[in-house]
Every structure is written in structure tokens, then in C-alpha cells.
Amino acid sequence: MTLSNLYIVLEDKIVFGDLIITDGLISNIIEKKPVEGLEKHFLIPGFIDVHIHGSNGFDAMDISHYAIEQMALSLVKEGTTGFLATTMTQSVSAIENALQCIKHYYDNQNPQASSLLGIHLEGPFINPGAAGAQPESFIINPDVKLFEHFMTSSGSLIKKVSFAPELDGANPFMSYLKQHGIIGSIAHTKATYQDVKNAIDHGVTSLTHTYNQMTPLHHRDIGVVGAAYLHDELNSELIFDKIHVSVEAAKILLKNKTYKGITLITDSMRAKYLKPGISELGGQKVIISNVDARLENGSLAGSILKMIDAYKNVIHDLNVSPVEASYMASVNPAKQLNMYDKIGSIEVGKRADLLILDDAYNLEKTFVNGQKVFEVK
Questions:
Q1: Smaller CB count within 10 Å for the chain: N or C?
Q2: What is the pTM of this model?
Q3: Backbone angles phi, psi at 228, to 5 degrees
Q4: For the stretch 230-248, what's the b/e string if a residue is b when 16 or more beta carbons lie within 10 angstroms of its beta carbon?
Q5: Which of 213, 211, 146 is nearest to 173 (CA)?
Q6: 47-342 carries CATH number 3.20.20.140
Q7: Which of 267, 292, 309, 353 is catalytic?
């Protein structure tokens, strides 16, 4: 297959030309002079969403491999070509059952859908004082033996864990994650700056939905948010729907982290793609509007953000280039997952997970493994 006359967004520049796909891989990139008078279309790497709970009426906790498939099928409509199915704080048995179902789908994936790359375990090892939309009744302290059970249930598919590093049991837990090459991510936390420094020393490299449910910057203790600004070791997840985080707060984060230190996520829940009304998250009632999802107490309950909208938002509101936006949406998550040799950028030899956008960055086509799986009609 040849994709012709496109502005191709590479890791560090944009070139005009053609891209050749052979057996699902990028086999050649042919640069040439732009054709005058031709409509402008961009070719960018597919998005990788490392934090997504649900979509299109389905959730990773539904204990149904059909639910995971339906999620994956819906995600190609927003340009997501790879994702981590993200669990949440629930009973141990509910989490284990969900992990087993995700593993079943992982082994039997639909080739027309977004690729399931693994699992992101969010909770239950979080601080009750920063639970947000996570049910407090199921929260427990970090426990290596329990986590080993989770790993067994998942077939060792857990790639990322969101937890609070200040809790009892966190130190051996963080050491275990580092030893096994699992991304440790600070989340739903009341951690002090010293707690974060300790976490970094124990191998933690990520912050979950930066700003949300974490200690803010204060001039006597800069907290988790201040640590995000200060430490290049920490990659910051960002839900940029302009609801979870203001444009100004995102600009401050970008100024400190640069585009190489931020990973765009959706943190979306099952109500994405559904009409406004009543939905559910972890057994809790969620009220869906045209713009957000909230618990009955008003707390944000994940998002209904689509990755293509996050991509457009950072270009329009943070004034980043398509190269920088693709770094945040594709390069950084692929590097975090140690999969950058296969996915995350447009390079010869990598998987042809690709998107074609129009000149306003609207999604036109999605390709997974070189196969067209979505096209705007």
C-alpha cells in the first residue's frame, strides 16, 4: 500500500512525500517537493492511550472480553491505535476477574480494533483522602503478595500501576515494580515532596493525571505538583479536555516539563460516545453532560475526552506543533512502555499504526498494522 502526497509527521520534523506499507510495517518514506494547489493532509503516528477505563458503553471492569473488544473497536474512531485497559479500585475478586477477562481478549484480539497493549492498574493502593471517583470502601495499602496475584490473573500484562507512595508498604512495593520493569505512577495521593523524592529513589517514573487528586504546589512543601515541575525523571500524564486542567495550568506544566515530559491521556469512562444522561463508574452513579462526567457529589468521574480532541487542544491552546503534539500522544507513551522500537512514531521498520488528518487536524482515516480500520464517511 502507498499513502501519497502527505505531510508526514516524523519524530523531529515534517516532510512531504509518500509512505509505503509492506506486510503491516512501514517499508519506505519517500520525500519529495510539495505539490502546489493540493489539499493539505497530515500523516501522523497513531495515538497510544495509556490510561482509559471505558468507551462506547463499556468498561474494563465489566468482566467481559466482549466489553474490551467493543472499547477497542470504538477507539479507532478517535485515532487511538494502542491502549492500556485501565482498571479501578474495586474488590480484590472483581479486579482479578477483570484482569482475567482482559487477558482473554489480549490473546484473541480483533484485528480491526485498536491494539490492546496491556493493563494499567489504577488502585486499589491509593490514599482514601484523595480517592476522587475511586470507591473508598475498597482501598487498601500496597501489598506485594496481592499484586503478585494480580499479575498472575493478568498473565503478567500489567504494564503500569497508579498508587500513593506515602502509604505503609509502599517502599517494598515500589522496589518490586522497578525490579520487574513495571511503570510506577503516583496517583490519588497526599504525598509530600519528600515522599515523591523517596518514590523517585525507588524507581517511580510517572505521575497519573497530573494536578488531579494530588498535593498542589505550596511554597513550604512543593508537593507532587511541584515535583512534577522540578524532576525530569517524572513523566506527567495530562487529561487535556480543558475541564480537568485549565489551559493556564497546562501551559505551566508544558513550560516546565516540555513536550518530552508529558503524555496525553483520556482517562475516559464508558459514557464516551453516548448521549448525555445517567451512567456508572465502579458501581457509582455518574451524571453525563455534553462536556464532562461527574459523580452525584460533583466530583469529576473520569472524562469523555477523545484522543483526537486532546491532540487538537494542545495544538490550538498550548501552541505546540504537530511534531510536539505527536510526541505527547504517541512517542512518549511508546517509550514509557518500552515499545518504541515497534510503535509510537513514523519510521521504517515500525508498525504501520497511522492516522490521516485534514488541514484542521480532524481525523480522516485510521490504520492499524497497515490495515485501514476507520474512515470518516
A1: C
A2: 0.97
A3: -60, -45
A4: ebeebbbbbbbbbebbeee
A5: 146
A6: yes
A7: 267
> Residue 167: what residue type?
L
How many Cα atoms sit within 13 Å of 156 on the Cβ side? 2
Three cell numbers, residue 1: 500500500
Q: 313 and 244 in contact (C-beta within 8 Å)?
A: no
97: helix, coil or strand? helix
Confidence of residue 139 (pLDDT cuts 50, 70, 90): very high
What are residue 28's DSSP bridge partners? 20
Residue identified by cell 503524555 is: 263
* Residue in the block written with cell 522540578: 230
Any catalytic annotation for residue 241?
A: no
**Whole-number Å distance between alpha carbons of 193 and 199:** 10
Place of cell 497497515: 370
Cell of 278: 445517567
**Residue 226: helix, strand or coil by DSSP?**
helix
Q: Cα(115)–Cα(94) distance, rounded to whole angstroms?
A: 24
Identify the residue whose cell numbers are 460516545: 273
Distance CA 349, CA 309 (A): 28
Cα Dmax for the chain? 64
CA distance 237 to 175: 22
152: amino acid identity, one letter: T
